[in-house]
Amino acid sequence: MVNELDNNTTYQTAATSLPASGKRLVILGAGESGIGAALLGKQQGYEIFVSDGGAIKDLYKQELAVNNIPFEEGHHSWDIVLDAAEIVKSPGIPEKTELMKKVREKQIPVISEIELAYRFSKDKKIIAITGSNGKSTTTALTYHIFKTAGLNVAMVGNIGVSYAKQVATAPADYYVIEISSFQLDDIKEFKPNVAILLNITPDHLDRYEYKMENYVASKFRIAMNQTAEDYFIYCKDDPEIMKHLEQQPIFSTTIPFTIMEPLKAGGFIANDQVNIQVNEEPVIMSIYDLALKGKHNLYNSMAAGIAGRTMDIRKEKIRESLASFKSLEHRMEYVATVRGVDFINDSKATNVNSVWFALESMERPVVLIMGGVDKGNDYGAIRELVKEKVKAIVCLGVDNSPIQEALSKDTPAMVNTGSMEEAVQAAFQLATKGDVVLLSPACASFDLFKNYEDRGRQFKETVKEL
């Protein structure tokens, strides 16, 4: 076994050095969730082996080496993987890979990092949040409410530190978790005290046999183990959620939120006020006092506020938190005003629905920067908003033809660019005082950027150089 870690050596072990044990845990994927699972597994006495088919970041390799956790990168040693008592699978690994087919054939139990972390934190209070859009914002806002109330809370999952790593290194009394459908696919007993389902729109359908009902079912797994003492908070205005609830009722205490009508219990908007009717004392505040603007953020604010009330956080603390929250990086993030033009970074908008929400919240003329790796987008969903609010589209990507074909007739101007610098310069030239330049791509980023964070940071840096 190699203990030295350098640029030429992979720190790994042979199959023979892993003792036969019911606690032999193989972790597939060495990203944030995989490393967290490895650290927690090691702490709990499992025999750990980490296997990543690609390259592992140096920071993560160092963490594994320091903790004497054997690993491999660039390939999978099938003899070791298929000898596991249990496997923790990265959410990024599809079931259709040859390795996963072999794992399923051997009937080795497969869980997600979320499931492993829950195993060692089920005595704590867990607030889990999923949805196609708005997860990160709602998770951060819920965390802000709990933090403002003085509770010992951690924000984990798809946002920041992995759930397992937090449980291993800095346990909390409350966990606010952002969870994707991929993570939910491999839960077994995971049971949040509070589950929030924000919305369901088509996304990642390639992982679900291109069937919307499979994707919807995956999202609803967040509530599959809940009982009457748990809460399921959901959007009453979402047709996919309502259709599923009619067909397959759930067993937890349900709390809806809506912007369409007053409710006796739940969250709703009336007379330009947010009303959260949970427990004895309602939380009521003006929508103009909310820190987050736009219709989609009314939903996010209500969901987070309801979660706070289910945990008996005082209404004054909830109002204070909803008014003081600062939006997240790359999610409708204000960057700067240059000669009267506001620049907004919404790089996290990697699907059409996210762009719809962004445009819907705009009250001034928009120069929209969009493009990247098209995931089979239907741009028809934003056509009316583009006609109404967008004075120009700046296409940013290697292949901009899908956007051109779909939207060129709906806006007065459209230009092609192949770099962030070009895109920002073009948008600035097309904008006039009082306009908004909005980076809201509707696409994945990896044609020109490492990820959406890299895209957003390059946008901000370029804007600051104007």
Domain module tally: 3
Strand order of the largest sheet: 7-8-6-9-10-11
CATH superfamily of the largest domain: Mur-like, catalytic domain
Intertermini distance = 53 Å
Catalytic activity: UDP-N-acetyl-alpha-D-muramoyl-L-alanine + D-glutamate + ATP = UDP-N-acetyl-alpha-D-muramoyl-L-alanyl-D-glutamate + ADP + phosphate + H(+)
Keywords: ATP-binding, Cell cycle, Cell division, Cell shape, Cell wall biogenesis/degradation, Cytoplasm, Ligase, Nucleotide-binding, Peptidoglycan synthesis
GO molecular function, one term: UDP-N-acetylmuramoylalanine-D-glutamate ligase activity
EC number: 6.3.2.9
Question: Any descriptors?
Answer:
nucleotide-binding, Rossmann fold, 17 helices, ATP-binding, 6-stranded mixed β-sheet, 3 domains, cell cycle, cytoplasm, UDP-N-acetylmuramoyl-L-alanine:D-glutamate ligase, 6-stranded parallel β-sheet, 466 residues, alpha/beta, 20 strands, Protein-Tyrosine Phosphatase, Chain A, disordered N terminus
Folded structure, characterized:
This protein is of the alpha/beta class. The chain has helices at residues 32-43, 58-66, 78-81, 98-105, 113-119, 135-148, 163-169, 181-184, 212-220, 239-247, 295-310, 315-324, 352-360, 383-389, 401-407, 420-430, 452-464, and strands at 24-28, 47-52, 71-73, 86-89, 110-111, 125-130, 153-157, 174-178, 194-197, 231-235, 253-257, 266-270, 273-277, 283-286, 333-338, 341-345, 366-370, 390-396, 414-417, 436-439. The termini are far apart. The radius of gyration is 23 Å and the shape is globular. A hairpin with a 2-residue loop joins strand 12 and strand 13. It has three domains: 15-111, Rossmann fold, CATH 3.40.50; 121-324, Mur-like, catalytic domain (UDP-N-acetylmuramoyl-L-alanine:D-glutamate ligase, 3-Layer(aba) Sandwich); 333-464, Mur ligase, C-terminal domain (Protein-Tyrosine Phosphatase, Chain A, Alpha-Beta Complex), CATH 3.90.190.20. The strands form four sheets. Strands 7-8-6-9-10-11 form a six-stranded parallel beta sheet, sandwiched between helices. Strands 15-16-20-17-18-19 form a six-stranded mixed beta sheet. A five-stranded parallel beta sheet has the order 3-2-1-4-5. The longest helix has 16 residues, at 295-310. Helix 11 packs antiparallel against helix 12. Belongs to the MurCDEF family.
